[in-house]
Amino acid sequence: MKEVSKMIRTLVLLCIFCISFQGFALSEGGDEGAVDTKEEVDAYIQHHIKDAHDFHLFSYTGDNGERKHVGFPLPVILWSSNGLVTFMSSEFHHDDAGKVVVEKGGSKFVKLHSKIYELNAGATEVQFDEHHHAENAAKVLDFSITKSVFGILLIGLFMLWAFSSLAKQYAKKKVPTGFGRVLEPLVIYVRDEIAKPNIGEKKYRKFTGYLLTVFFFIWILNLLGLTPFGFNVTGQLAVTAALAIFTLVIYTFSGNKDYWMHMLWMPGVPVLIRPVLAIIELAGAFVIKPFSLLVRLFANISAGHIVVMSLIAIMFTLKKSLGVVGATGLSLVLSFFITLIEVLVAFLQAYIFTMLSALFIGMAVAEHDHDHEHDAKGHEVPDAEDVRGDFI
Amino acid sequence: MYNLIGAGLIVIGAGIGLGQIGGKAMEGIARQPEATGKIQTAMIIIAALLEGLAFGALFLGK
Q1: Which residue has the higher pLDDT, A245 or A108?
Q2: Taking every annotated instance into account, which residue ranges of this chain make up the domain V-ATPase proteolipid subunit C-like (chain B) (predicted)?
Q3: Would you call A352 and B45 a contact, using CB atoms and an 8 Å cutoff?
Q4: How confident is the model at residue A53 (pLDDT cuts 50, 70, 90)?
Q5: Mean pLDDT of A94-108
Q6: Single pTM value for the model
Q7: CB distance B44–A352 less than 8 Å?
Q8: A147-172 vs A204-224: helix crossing angle, rounded to 10
């Protein structure tokens, strides 16, 4: 009981720490001074949700009225019309409106709304058409180590270290020590509660590696998104789409004869209905299943970030009507509890992604024991259990 | 304006759905406490499917 209360106290302190940091970042967020109005809050949140080329922790106005930004740059790697170009993102001086032109390797680059453009030959500054699109610049192939890429690499290395040290401990003695004791119950949980019941006793071992990787990857990155560094990795469509495609490839290529048979030429239903069912099944397997996986994770994490930041922004938007103390208190209470819920959501989304991946893989590798009744002509008589199983 | 009304309707629908899921799961657990684990797993999966739908619609309506 004492450990539990200690754990809760640590968690509460951590949440308050995170909120205060995020609030500080928000209060000084925009490029033109403090964030006050609804539009500025909206722009700030949109900026946070997107990927960025540098870490921007907070900024303040110096004594001489100059804006100072605190953060650290990340490498920019571009494939321009003149070949490979690399430089640090600090060359842009935190500009995001296309004002600062960086000349490297014979090409000129500007950063506009977190995307890097290459100016056409002869142009010295970016010009906009009436829709505020760049007129004389084109997007380049961007292989930069952005914030999300940095987060993925960081967590990849962390997982490599944590799990290889856990594996090494098993070689020496039976019980892991230190951080391994935190990981072991989770590993066993994923194996016994997610992999085994959904894939089956015989085949689960082959897929447990993937399920464990994807579970810990999503969970740790979700938790990283709650720290004040402004990561939003699992809230990027590209990241969740890549994860969903992994699952799609795995269950498509491990599908057995029964799986394809049931998808393309469903046994036990009238012949005329079979092509219709095949279309539905194909759409389900190749579009709906991966799409639901990627949209759920993306939408949950993005919505969580938007809600947390909107609740923090209450202290600025309601400052006039509630007073400074009232608005700050309301914002603190609301964002504290929503952050606690986000900790739960971080785990839940990792669990659901892993669970559904295991379910889809299990459906692809399931052995159908064909002990159906046969009528006088030798045709199969479908039983309700079999037909229902294919629709779940 | 209309997209906000649509978003509100979606949230109402999702709320009713989540209430149904939670309520029925509780009923199921009360009737068969030994099946708690299985019911909870199924409940979370259905709730996640519903939530994915609601979030997708909210994003389209925004």
Answers
A1: A245
A2: 5-57
A3: yes
A4: confident
A5: 78
A6: 0.80
A7: yes
A8: 130
DSSP SS3 for A70: strand
Contacts of B21 in chain A (CB under 8 A): none
DSSP-based three-state secondary structure for A342? helix
Distance between A288 CA and the closest CA of chain B, angstroms? 12
CB contact under 8 A, B52 and A348: no
pLDDT of residue A29: 43
ipTM of the complex: 0.71
The residue to which tokens 């579009």 are assigned? A287
Taking CA atoms, what residue in A is nearest to B62?
A303
- The three-point CA angle A237-A220-A288 to 5° equals 35
Residues of chain B in contact with residue A351, where contact means CB-CB under 8 angstroms, are 44
Chain B residues touching A299 at Cβ < 8 A: 52, 55-56, 58-59
Residue A59 reports pLDDT greater than 80: no
| Cα of B52 to nearest chain A Cα, Å | 5
Give the residue carrying structure tokens 């659901």. Answer: A352
Q: B residues 23-62 near A, CB within 8 Å?
A: 41, 44-45, 48-49, 51-52, 55-56, 58-59
Q: What average pLDDT does the segment A291-310 reach?
A: 88
Look at residue A380 in the predicted model and tell me its pLDDT: 56
Question: How much is the average pLDDT of A167-174?
Answer: 83
CATH number for B2-61: choose from 3.30.565.10, 1.20.20.10, 3.30.450.20, 1.10.510.10. 1.20.20.10
3-state secondary structure A237-295: HHHHHHHHHHHHHHHHHCCCHHHHHHHHCCCCCCHHHHHHHHHHHHHHHHHHHHHHHHH
* Alpha-carbon gap: A284 to the closest alpha carbon of chain B (Å): 14
In sequence order, the 6+-apart residues with CB closer than 8 A to the CB of B14 are: B50, B51, B53, B54
The neighbouring-strand residues paired with A200 are: none
Give the residue from A171, A155, A297, A254 showing the smallest Cα distance to A213.
Answer: A155
d(CA A77, nearest CA chain B) in Å: 32
**Contacts with B44 from chain A: Cβ below 8 Å:** 348, 351-352, 355
For residue A202, the surrounding DSSP H or E stretch is none
Task: Note the pLDDT of residue A217.
Answer: 95
